[in-house]
Amino acid sequence: MSKVKVGLVQMSCVKEPFENLNKAIREIKKAAADGAKIVCLQELFTSLYFCDVEDYDNFKLAEPIPGPTTEILGKLAADHGIVIIASLFEKRTQGIYHNTTAVIDADGSYLGKYRKMHIPDDPAFYEKFYFTPGDLGYKVFQTRYAKVGVLICWDQWYPEAARITSLMGAEILFYPTAIGWATSQDEETNQDQYNSWQIIQRSHAVANGIPVVSVNRVGYEQDGQMKFWGGSFVSNGQGKLLYLASHDKEETSVVEVDLHQADEFRVHWPFMRDRRIDSYMPITKRFIDED
Fold this sequence. Notes:
The chain has helices at residues 17-33, 68-80, 159-167, 187-208, 261-268; strands at 3-10, 38-41, 83-93, 96-104, 110-115, 140-142, 147-150, 172-177, 180-182, 212-216, 218-221, 226-229, 233-235, 241-244, 251-258. It is an alpha/beta fold and 291 residues long. A six-stranded mixed β-sheet has the order 5-4-3-2-1-15.
Protein backbone atom coordinates (compact mmCIF):
# COMPACT_ATOMS: atom_id res chain seq x y z
CA MET A 1 0.00 0.00 0.00
CA SER A 2 1.70 3.17 -1.18
CA LYS A 3 -0.62 5.62 0.53
CA VAL A 4 -2.24 5.27 3.93
CA LYS A 5 -4.56 7.53 5.87
CA VAL A 6 -3.59 8.14 9.50
CA GLY A 7 -5.91 9.41 12.19
CA LEU A 8 -4.83 11.72 15.02
CA VAL A 9 -6.98 12.07 18.15
CA GLN A 10 -6.07 15.26 20.02
CA MET A 11 -8.29 15.44 23.10
CA SER A 12 -8.59 16.79 26.62
CA CYS A 13 -8.88 14.46 29.59
CA VAL A 14 -10.74 14.30 32.88
CA LYS A 15 -10.17 12.45 36.14
CA GLU A 16 -12.44 9.48 35.40
CA PRO A 17 -10.64 6.94 33.16
CA PHE A 18 -13.82 5.44 31.72
CA GLU A 19 -14.88 8.86 30.41
CA ASN A 20 -11.55 9.32 28.64
CA LEU A 21 -11.70 5.82 27.18
CA ASN A 22 -15.25 6.34 25.94
CA LYS A 23 -14.27 9.65 24.35
CA ALA A 24 -11.29 8.01 22.65
CA ILE A 25 -13.53 5.25 21.31
CA ARG A 26 -15.94 7.80 19.86
CA GLU A 27 -13.10 9.67 18.18
CA ILE A 28 -11.50 6.50 16.84
CA LYS A 29 -14.83 5.60 15.24
CA LYS A 30 -15.01 9.09 13.75
CA ALA A 31 -11.51 8.77 12.29
CA ALA A 32 -12.35 5.33 10.87
CA ALA A 33 -15.51 6.72 9.27
CA ASP A 34 -13.35 9.39 7.62
CA GLY A 35 -11.11 6.72 6.11
CA ALA A 36 -8.30 6.37 8.64
CA LYS A 37 -6.45 3.05 8.52
CA ILE A 38 -4.05 3.76 11.41
CA VAL A 39 -5.25 5.79 14.41
CA CYS A 40 -2.88 7.14 17.05
CA LEU A 41 -3.96 8.35 20.48
CA GLN A 42 -2.04 10.77 22.70
CA GLU A 43 0.22 9.77 25.58
CA LEU A 44 -1.59 8.32 28.64
CA PHE A 45 -4.98 9.08 27.09
CA THR A 46 -7.07 7.27 29.72
CA SER A 47 -6.22 9.72 32.52
CA LEU A 48 -5.18 13.20 33.43
CA TYR A 49 -1.44 13.70 33.18
CA PHE A 50 -0.83 12.48 36.72
CA CYS A 51 2.95 12.96 36.71
CA ASP A 52 2.55 16.56 37.86
CA VAL A 53 2.78 15.23 41.44
CA GLU A 54 4.48 12.35 43.22
CA ASP A 55 1.44 10.53 44.59
CA TYR A 56 1.43 6.80 45.35
CA ASP A 57 -2.33 6.61 44.72
CA ASN A 58 -1.69 7.26 41.03
CA PHE A 59 -0.16 3.81 40.65
CA LYS A 60 -3.72 2.50 40.88
CA LEU A 61 -4.26 3.87 37.36
CA ALA A 62 -1.89 1.30 35.86
CA GLU A 63 -2.96 -1.92 34.14
CA PRO A 64 -1.32 -4.93 32.48
CA ILE A 65 -0.57 -4.84 28.75
CA PRO A 66 -2.17 -6.71 27.12
CA GLY A 67 -5.08 -6.15 29.45
CA PRO A 68 -8.58 -4.71 29.71
CA THR A 69 -8.01 -1.61 27.57
CA THR A 70 -6.20 -3.43 24.78
CA GLU A 71 -9.02 -5.99 24.77
CA ILE A 72 -11.61 -3.25 24.25
CA LEU A 73 -9.52 -1.54 21.59
CA GLY A 74 -8.81 -4.88 19.89
CA LYS A 75 -12.52 -5.42 19.31
CA LEU A 76 -12.84 -1.86 18.03
CA ALA A 77 -9.91 -2.34 15.65
CA ALA A 78 -11.36 -5.56 14.27
CA ASP A 79 -14.84 -4.05 13.82
CA HIS A 80 -13.46 -1.16 11.76
CA GLY A 81 -10.43 -2.77 10.13
CA ILE A 82 -8.02 -0.24 11.59
CA VAL A 83 -4.69 -0.23 13.40
CA ILE A 84 -4.75 1.46 16.83
CA ILE A 85 -1.70 2.91 18.60
CA ALA A 86 -2.60 3.31 22.27
CA SER A 87 -0.43 4.82 25.01
CA LEU A 88 -1.10 3.34 28.47
CA PHE A 89 0.27 3.19 32.02
CA GLU A 90 1.58 -0.36 32.30
CA LYS A 91 1.78 -2.39 35.50
CA ARG A 92 4.36 -5.01 34.68
CA THR A 93 4.48 -6.58 38.14
CA GLN A 94 4.44 -5.43 41.74
CA GLY A 95 6.61 -2.33 41.94
CA ILE A 96 7.56 -2.13 38.23
CA TYR A 97 5.61 0.25 36.02
CA HIS A 98 6.22 1.57 32.52
CA ASN A 99 4.98 4.28 30.17
CA THR A 100 4.01 1.98 27.33
CA THR A 101 2.33 2.07 23.93
CA ALA A 102 0.45 -0.94 22.62
CA VAL A 103 -0.04 -1.57 18.91
CA ILE A 104 -3.16 -3.39 17.76
CA ASP A 105 -3.50 -4.63 14.19
CA ALA A 106 -6.50 -4.22 11.93
CA ASP A 107 -7.80 -7.71 12.74
CA GLY A 108 -7.84 -6.87 16.44
CA SER A 109 -4.70 -8.82 17.27
CA TYR A 110 -2.23 -7.43 19.77
CA LEU A 111 1.10 -6.96 17.96
CA GLY A 112 3.20 -5.89 20.91
CA LYS A 113 4.33 -2.88 22.90
CA TYR A 114 7.03 -0.26 23.12
CA ARG A 115 8.17 0.97 26.53
CA LYS A 116 9.31 4.59 26.73
CA MET A 117 13.10 4.70 26.83
CA HIS A 118 13.80 8.30 27.87
CA ILE A 119 12.12 9.26 31.15
CA PRO A 120 12.06 12.97 32.09
CA ASP A 121 12.11 14.51 35.53
CA ASP A 122 11.21 18.19 35.52
CA PRO A 123 8.88 20.39 37.56
CA ALA A 124 5.33 19.09 36.94
CA PHE A 125 6.72 16.20 34.86
CA TYR A 126 7.91 13.81 37.58
CA GLU A 127 7.95 10.72 35.41
CA LYS A 128 10.92 9.06 37.08
CA PHE A 129 8.76 8.60 40.18
CA TYR A 130 6.36 6.40 38.21
CA PHE A 131 8.11 4.83 35.25
CA THR A 132 10.93 2.35 34.95
CA PRO A 133 12.89 3.07 31.73
CA GLY A 134 11.99 0.83 28.81
CA ASP A 135 13.94 -2.42 28.44
CA LEU A 136 12.51 -3.73 25.17
CA GLY A 137 14.70 -1.55 22.99
CA TYR A 138 13.39 0.31 19.98
CA LYS A 139 10.57 -1.39 18.14
CA VAL A 140 8.81 -1.56 14.81
CA PHE A 141 5.50 -3.27 14.14
CA GLN A 142 4.39 -4.75 10.83
CA THR A 143 0.72 -3.83 10.63
CA ARG A 144 -1.70 -4.53 7.82
CA TYR A 145 -1.10 -1.10 6.30
CA ALA A 146 2.49 -0.15 7.12
CA LYS A 147 5.49 -0.97 9.25
CA VAL A 148 5.25 1.56 12.04
CA GLY A 149 7.75 2.77 14.58
CA VAL A 150 6.52 4.10 17.92
CA LEU A 151 8.36 6.43 20.28
CA ILE A 152 6.85 8.35 23.21
CA CYS A 153 6.98 12.05 24.13
CA TRP A 154 10.41 12.71 25.71
CA ASP A 155 11.87 10.28 23.15
CA GLN A 156 11.07 13.04 20.63
CA TRP A 157 14.18 15.00 21.53
CA TYR A 158 16.62 12.20 20.71
CA PRO A 159 17.68 11.77 17.07
CA GLU A 160 19.33 8.47 18.03
CA ALA A 161 15.92 6.96 18.84
CA ALA A 162 14.38 8.10 15.57
CA ARG A 163 17.38 6.90 13.57
CA ILE A 164 17.49 3.45 15.13
CA THR A 165 13.76 2.96 14.69
CA SER A 166 14.06 4.07 11.06
CA LEU A 167 17.00 1.73 10.47
CA MET A 168 14.77 -1.11 11.71
CA GLY A 169 12.50 -0.44 8.74
CA ALA A 170 9.85 1.91 10.11
CA GLU A 171 7.82 3.51 7.32
CA ILE A 172 6.12 6.01 9.67
CA LEU A 173 7.24 7.31 13.07
CA PHE A 174 4.43 7.88 15.60
CA TYR A 175 4.92 9.98 18.75
CA PRO A 176 2.10 9.89 21.35
CA THR A 177 2.75 12.94 23.51
CA ALA A 178 1.72 14.93 26.60
CA ILE A 179 3.46 18.29 26.71
CA GLY A 180 2.33 21.77 27.57
CA TRP A 181 3.01 25.24 28.85
CA ALA A 182 2.94 26.50 32.41
CA THR A 183 0.21 29.15 32.35
CA SER A 184 2.56 31.51 34.20
CA GLN A 185 4.88 31.70 31.17
CA ASP A 186 4.98 34.56 28.70
CA GLU A 187 3.79 34.03 25.14
CA GLU A 188 7.24 34.38 23.55
CA THR A 189 8.61 31.57 25.71
CA ASN A 190 5.57 29.45 24.88
CA GLN A 191 6.09 29.84 21.16
CA ASP A 192 9.84 29.21 21.40
CA GLN A 193 9.17 25.95 23.24
CA TYR A 194 6.50 24.79 20.84
CA ASN A 195 8.60 25.65 17.78
CA SER A 196 11.56 23.73 19.18
CA TRP A 197 9.33 20.72 19.85
CA GLN A 198 7.91 20.70 16.34
CA ILE A 199 11.23 21.44 14.61
CA ILE A 200 13.11 18.58 16.28
CA GLN A 201 10.47 16.10 15.17
CA ARG A 202 10.30 17.44 11.63
CA SER A 203 14.08 17.10 11.54
CA HIS A 204 13.67 13.38 12.31
CA ALA A 205 11.42 13.15 9.27
CA VAL A 206 14.01 14.89 7.09
CA ALA A 207 17.01 12.93 8.40
CA ASN A 208 15.25 9.61 7.83
CA GLY A 209 13.09 10.44 4.83
CA ILE A 210 9.85 9.15 6.36
CA PRO A 211 6.64 10.72 7.72
CA VAL A 212 6.34 11.71 11.38
CA VAL A 213 2.98 11.76 13.16
CA SER A 214 2.91 13.53 16.54
CA VAL A 215 -0.27 13.43 18.65
CA ASN A 216 -0.46 15.67 21.73
CA ARG A 217 -3.13 16.24 24.36
CA VAL A 218 -4.87 19.57 24.77
CA GLY A 219 -6.59 21.53 27.53
CA TYR A 220 -5.96 22.81 31.05
CA GLU A 221 -4.88 20.47 33.83
CA GLN A 222 -3.12 20.71 37.20
CA ASP A 223 -5.78 23.12 38.53
CA GLY A 224 -5.27 25.38 35.54
CA GLN A 225 -1.52 25.69 35.99
CA MET A 226 -0.70 23.68 32.86
CA LYS A 227 -2.08 24.16 29.37
CA PHE A 228 -1.30 21.20 27.17
CA TRP A 229 -0.50 22.82 23.88
CA GLY A 230 -2.05 20.43 21.35
CA GLY A 231 -0.42 21.36 18.07
CA SER A 232 -0.49 17.78 16.81
CA PHE A 233 0.93 17.49 13.32
CA VAL A 234 1.94 15.31 10.41
CA SER A 235 5.16 15.90 8.47
CA ASN A 236 6.25 14.18 5.29
CA GLY A 237 9.79 12.92 4.78
CA GLN A 238 11.04 16.33 3.70
CA GLY A 239 9.70 18.06 6.77
CA LYS A 240 6.68 19.55 4.99
CA LEU A 241 3.68 20.00 7.28
CA LEU A 242 0.73 18.04 5.92
CA TYR A 243 -1.47 18.84 8.92
CA LEU A 244 -1.28 21.10 11.97
CA ALA A 245 -3.80 21.13 14.83
CA SER A 246 -4.73 24.07 17.01
CA HIS A 247 -3.33 24.77 20.47
CA ASP A 248 -6.67 24.89 22.25
CA LYS A 249 -9.23 22.60 20.62
CA GLU A 250 -10.02 18.91 20.60
CA GLU A 251 -9.54 17.70 17.04
CA THR A 252 -9.76 14.36 15.31
CA SER A 253 -8.23 14.50 11.86
CA VAL A 254 -7.31 12.13 9.06
CA VAL A 255 -4.27 12.77 6.88
CA GLU A 256 -2.95 10.77 3.93
CA VAL A 257 0.76 9.99 3.79
CA ASP A 258 2.64 8.50 0.85
CA LEU A 259 4.97 5.69 1.90
CA HIS A 260 6.62 5.44 -1.51
CA GLN A 261 8.04 8.95 -1.20
CA ALA A 262 10.71 7.58 1.15
CA ASP A 263 12.64 6.07 -1.72
CA GLU A 264 12.53 9.31 -3.71
CA PHE A 265 13.60 11.41 -0.73
CA ARG A 266 16.41 9.05 0.22
CA VAL A 267 17.70 8.89 -3.36
CA HIS A 268 17.73 12.65 -3.88
CA TRP A 269 18.88 13.47 -0.35
CA PRO A 270 21.09 10.42 0.25
CA PHE A 271 21.70 10.83 3.97
CA MET A 272 21.28 7.10 4.51
CA ARG A 273 23.81 6.26 1.78
CA ASP A 274 26.44 8.64 3.08
CA ARG A 275 26.34 7.70 6.74
CA ARG A 276 29.85 7.06 8.11
CA ILE A 277 28.95 4.23 10.41
CA ASP A 278 32.65 3.55 11.04
CA SER A 279 32.96 6.94 12.75
CA TYR A 280 30.01 6.88 15.16
CA MET A 281 31.34 4.96 18.15
CA PRO A 282 31.82 8.15 20.23
CA ILE A 283 28.04 8.61 20.29
CA THR A 284 27.85 5.85 22.88
CA LYS A 285 29.80 7.96 25.39
CA ARG A 286 28.04 10.14 27.96
CA PHE A 287 30.42 12.99 27.12
CA ILE A 288 33.62 13.15 25.10
CA ASP A 289 36.22 14.41 27.53
CA GLU A 290 39.64 15.54 26.44
CA ASP A 291 42.46 13.18 27.39
